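Design a sequence for this backbone.
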């Protein structure tokens, strides 16, 4: 059977490269000890020089392969290395890879010393090379550096499974099928006849099996097609009930199973049509945001748990049904979680506006191939982005990227995100960044104006807002409200246009960027959440669209202070909610009951409540009072929120995403620290210094002495390799948080 052995622990790392570093007997004893994922250099939250991490560095790893594996093939599999990698084993060059977002593998067998120490050395070029997408000109995000996704040894029989592509068919019929292409490789000289077995199971219960006998010629690769037919009682994958199944292919020689490959699949039909998006034959308006995979301090180098948490934030905190992986293939852990929770994905190749020379284009074509072959079994993915984001037309180039995608995966549509009108429509779905809304009456363009065509076509809006109205979480109240309303207006307009299938806002989270973009401090403040995934007011619009049976949402878009807005007051008061009715109480007196503004925003499921008049919130110089807002569903109180008239720092709250993590020296979890007033509301203009103390079997990612950003800040804590506890405590000048205790488990 195949063995997958993690190589993620105990690497040696140097922030430079010299040829002697590749020699197996080089003494790396003074080098830094690191685990994977790893970034070339940790950076500050903001105000840094991006050249700091754009270096050529070296990684070295010692490992052994037992002698009983002689006769097997030994591969090394890299999840991703930014941006160019050269691989050496025991001083011998093995191969190289261009591109920082897709996986690659090399056969080490001929260079392995079995039963003895082997030295794997990786030269990593994290500079922005003009021959590798997305580089060559300017891009408005940072790509960081290092071996930032996992590394494994894969030990297989010389005749083994390279990949499988499972294609559920007739999913809307009672009798369903799975057409599966199995990709075999035979690295032996002689041909061999073997049995290929396939099974479908759910939660460990086998539902269907089949087998076939095939002959594979020596020194060759072979594709075979296997079908499972007449599958009944199969649950469909959708955004509410994401049913998943395990498909396993095994190779048998005599009575011995000598290779096995399992992937998860879902039965679903997802297609963008001229009149909207249809999932399993039912029309669904897609509401989404774009995601960059970057985090404070370590860029891309966050482990599985943290990647998965982003999917949960998008689905459960923001109430989305769609995410676009802007502008590159993202972590398989993130995609796995999207599969599990029913979050649809539009995945695209690396790039931003710039198209390079022919050599550059060849790397892009390989990106298309590597992206699709890695991810084609994810039911969450319904659209392949095969055009460089916001690039000009290049018909020959994009005809080829579409051809590659359609040939590899005929089951999914292609898209290509542009921002120019009258662009040549080569894909299956016309995907457009529509930044027309700048606060006025025009919110979205009619698609015929965008496409220049006489007829309507499958069409999605893939970005809006963003740079049109960057907003910091600690901005003045009026800007925060307008930021939220712009997201609301676009989603409302998109839902009312029968020829728009999706509206995907720019973007979910703030992100680090080059000095050419952003706010000058190396941050693009375009997110509805900040880089720590802490919400701005715009996030409350999205969360208010959630099913109230899952969670009742009541978020008044106000800091409840008379002097926040121009001229003063809090009116008009916008309340993002999924409640039927809101009761407003000021100074202990009932002001009235208010209902959502359905006439103003008929396109969204849960319009905000908009209140034009509240007594006792008027003239400057009059008394200011506390207030309470109470939300009702079906006549029952389900949620409330209180504001005090005189907020002062009362408590430093600390909350962790997880109270148990793996004791592997890699796993991590987030802790949010908030300075709150008497009613538990954030104090959004506090920038008090905060010290974070970590004791026990873990360490802090980033600085332990920092400042609150708009009254709060996040931090990630990483485990050691020992079981035990991590105790985390934070202090400001006057307050100390209750300790957070996180168990680390082997």
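Sequence:
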């Amino acid at each position: 059977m195949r063995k997958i052995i993690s190589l993620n622990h105990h690497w040696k790392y140097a922030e430079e490269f010299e040829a002697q570093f590749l020699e197996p007997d080089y003494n790396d004893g003074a080098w830094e000890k690191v685990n994977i994922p790893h970034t070339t250099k940790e950076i500050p939250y903001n105000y840094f020089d991006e050249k700091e991490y754009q270096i050529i560095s070296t990684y070295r790893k010692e490992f052994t392969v037992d002698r009983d594996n002689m006769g097997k093939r030994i591969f090394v599999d890299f999840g991703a290395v930014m941006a160019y990698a050269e691989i050496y084993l025991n001083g011998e060059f093995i191969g190289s890879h261009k591109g920082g977002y897709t996986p690659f593998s090399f056969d080490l067998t001929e260079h392995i010393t079995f039963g003895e120490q082997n030295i794997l050395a990786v030269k990593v070029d994290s500079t922005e090379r003009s021959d590798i997408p997305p580089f060559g000109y300017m891009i408005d995000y940072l790509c960081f550096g290092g071996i930032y996704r996992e590394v494994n040894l894969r030990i297989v029989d010389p005749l083994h499974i390279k990949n499988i592509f499972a294609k559920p068919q007739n999913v809307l019929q009672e009798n369903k099928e799975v057409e599966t292409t199995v990709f075999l490789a035979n690295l032996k000289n002689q041909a061999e006849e073997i049995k290929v077995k396939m099974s479908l199971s759910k939660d460990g219960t086998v539902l269907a099996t089949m087998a076939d006998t095939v002959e594979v010629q020596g020194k060759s690769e072979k594709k075979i097609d296997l079908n499972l037919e007449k599958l009944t009682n199969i649950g469909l994958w959708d955004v509410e009930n994401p049913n998943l199944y395990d498909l396993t292919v095994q190779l048998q020689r005599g009575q011995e199973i000598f290779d096995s490959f399992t992937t998860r699949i879902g039965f679903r039909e997802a297609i963008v049509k001229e009149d909207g998006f249809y999932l399993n034959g039912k029309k669904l308006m897609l509401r989404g945001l774009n995601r960059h995979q970057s985090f404070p301090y370590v860029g891309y180098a966050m482990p599985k748990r943290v990647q998965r948490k982003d999917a949960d934030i998008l689905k459960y905190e923001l109430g989305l049904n769609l995410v676009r992986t802007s502008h590159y293939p993202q972590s398989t852990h993130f995609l796995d979680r999207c599969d599990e929770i029913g979050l649809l994905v539009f995945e695209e190749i690396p790039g931003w506006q710039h198209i390079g020379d022919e050599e550059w284009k060849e790397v892009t074509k390989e990106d298309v191939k590597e992206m699709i072959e890695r991810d084609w079994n994810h039911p969450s993915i319904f659209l392949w982005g095969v055009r460089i984001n916001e690039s000009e037309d290049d018909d020959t180039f994009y005809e080829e990227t579409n051809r590659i995608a359609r040939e590899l995966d005929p089951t999914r549509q292609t898209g290509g995100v542009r921002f120019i009108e009258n662009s040549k429509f080569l894909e299956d779905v016309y995907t457009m960044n529509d930044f027309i809304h700048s606060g006025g009456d025009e919110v979205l363009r009619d698609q015929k104006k965008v496409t220049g065509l006489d007829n309507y076509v499958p069409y999605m809006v893939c970005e809006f807002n963003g740079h049109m109205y960057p907003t910091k979480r600690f901005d003045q109240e009026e800007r925060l409200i307008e930021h939220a309303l712009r997201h609301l207006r676009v989603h409302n307009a998109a839902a009312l246009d029968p020829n728009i299938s999706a509206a995907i806002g720019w973007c979910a989270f703030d992100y680090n960027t080059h000095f050419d973009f952003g706010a000058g401090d190396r941050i693009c403040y375009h997110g509805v959440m900040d880089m720590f995934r802490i919400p701005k007011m715009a996030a409350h619009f999205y969360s208010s669209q959630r099913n109230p049976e899952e969670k009742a949402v009541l978020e008044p878009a106000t800091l409840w202070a008379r002097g926040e807005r121009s001229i003063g007051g809090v009116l008009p008061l916008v309340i993002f909610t999924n409640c039927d009715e809101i009761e407003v109480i000021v100074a202990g007196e009932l002001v009235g009951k208010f209902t959502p503004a359905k006439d103003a925003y008929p396109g969204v499921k849960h319009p905000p409540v908009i209140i034009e008049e509240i007594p006792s919130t008027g003239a400057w110089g009059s008394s200011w009072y506390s207030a309470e807002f109470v939300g009702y569903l079906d006549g029952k109180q389900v949620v409330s929120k209180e504001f005090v008239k005189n907020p002062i720092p009362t408590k430093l709250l600390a909350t962790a995403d997880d109270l148990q993590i793996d004791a592997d020296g890699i796993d991590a979890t987030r802790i949010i620290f908030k300075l709150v007033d008497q009613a538990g509301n954030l104090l959004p203009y506090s920038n008090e210094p905060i010290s974070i103390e970590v004791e026990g079997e873990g360490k802090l990612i980033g600085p332990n002495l920092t400042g609150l950003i708009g009254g709060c800040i996040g931090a990630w804590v990483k485990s050691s390799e020992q079981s035990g506890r991590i105790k985390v405590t934070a202090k400001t000048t006057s307050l100390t948080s209750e300790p957070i205790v996180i168990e680390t488990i082997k």
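The chain has a mean pLDDT of 96.
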